[in-house]
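Worked problem 6 (solution included).
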Amino acid sequence: MHRLILLVILICSFTVLVGQTSSLYKKDLGCYTFEMFDSNLFTFRVSPTDSNSVSLHFVDELNLDSETIVIPSKVTCNSKTYTVKYTDIDALSFKREVILPNTIEKIGIDPRKEYKLLVYCINSSEIKHLYSYEKPFKLTLPKSVSYINHNLLSYGSLNEFSVDSANPFFCSIDGVLYNRDTTKLICFPNRKKKAPIFPIKLRNIGAHAFKGNRYLSKITLPNSIDSIGDRAFCSCDNLRKVNIPNSVRYFGEGVFYNSKSIKSIELPNSINGISSRLFSDCSSLSKVELPKNIKIISSCAFENCTNLKKIVLPDSLRVIDSQAFRYCKNLKQIIIPDSLIFIGESAFSDCDKLDYIQLPKRFVDIPKEWYSLARMKHRSIYGKGIDRAVVFLSSSPPKNERKLISEWYKDLIYVPKGCDKQYVEYYKTNYEIDKANRIRVIGEK
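Solution. The predicted structure is:
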């Protein structure tokens, strides 16, 4: 009898110990607190919208012996069984093959936004952590996956996708992720070295599709492509040449942002504008062929293109938006066409070597304080042979005007038509008669 009681006690003790290997605890993730629990090498987060499901939050990879990580479909905590439906932001940043269960529905989510798309969510320390994984890995997507925030994978060492043939949302061709009907390229693994053979039906290069690829040096897009999503080719360190067909009608924001090896590019005549940050931080870019019918160069389009020395603006151009050419430190000359009606604030600021600019004859809209051309010391304006000049495009002198005009040179001061009297009165009021006598109207002798 005593032995039986002892056996029951041991069994009960063992059951309690097993049950206590996973217990709920609260953890603060940013602005919200979530219920978490540990199970073997995995940490899970209880879904805030579905109390019966969990998200894979962390994998203790350091204590994992296998070269393959198999994520369970169900886990138990405090006698309650949960279905694994999601993965958190960086839960898949591994250096091994990852096999997901058929219960997974969404990959790469932000718990604070309850599974909404998160684009720029990784801070600098996390980026360093993810980049430390040097061994490429393969990601297998089961048939249940309907959403993947592939932007997160650009920070890891992904070299291949594999998709269950029964998945109704995705497919993979040669390790590249597409939507099911292959009309959209969703993600080209950042560790993949071989350029893709594009499917015949392909029409769209998705946002962040090639982001962070370190190996591709040349890409030729097929004539079937009509749009390229935001930052599709950003931070492609080795990319030197991209051949773009005339079928492309749309570029998203920052398509080539921070791709520092691109030296020249010819844009198709099928587009009518340069999107925001299209070439921002492309430090090797020295030559760009702009389409003949573009109407706008959007904000920061060429910002920090430090090797850009010359660019020809077409006669169709109507708008140069703010900071469009900011920090183009080697840009030497700009001829702005007469078609232009607006120049945004700081469009040419910090262009240290810009020594010639030909201005249009009229402006419809000029910001109140516009410093883009405030200190342009040209050899000539309209080729009239003027030795030195300072150009203001604001209707009245900017606040820091005294810092912009040298006291040691007899700079001519060019101002917009109809504003010359205001500038003359300003200088006379401040007892700077010499400057008042140097005022000229833009476009006049």
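Discussion: The two ends are 117 Å apart (CA to CA).
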